[in-house]
Design brief:
DDE Tnp4 domain-containing protein; elongated; metal-binding; about 50% helix; mainly alpha
Amino acid sequence: MVDRGFDVETECRARGVRILMPPFKTPNQTKFTSIQVLNTRKLARARIHVERRIGRVRDWTFLNNVIPQTLLPVLSQQVYVCAALSNYQFFDL
């Protein structure tokens, strides 16, 4: 799931990743089609949950501090662990 303006389609296709992106109007288009409106709504509903998860991972104070260069080789593993642990946190809806 990406926002408009991110030009990562060729890199994602090369890796077999499917991109979900909100539609955007062409210069000669005045409004979205009904299918485009439905797809935009579906993406918006899913995006709420994705943004909530990202916010929960960002709550880890470990990730909000300056990270020494010596830890850069294992940074992706540390972010992975923080993301996994955030799945076990209780939260309000």
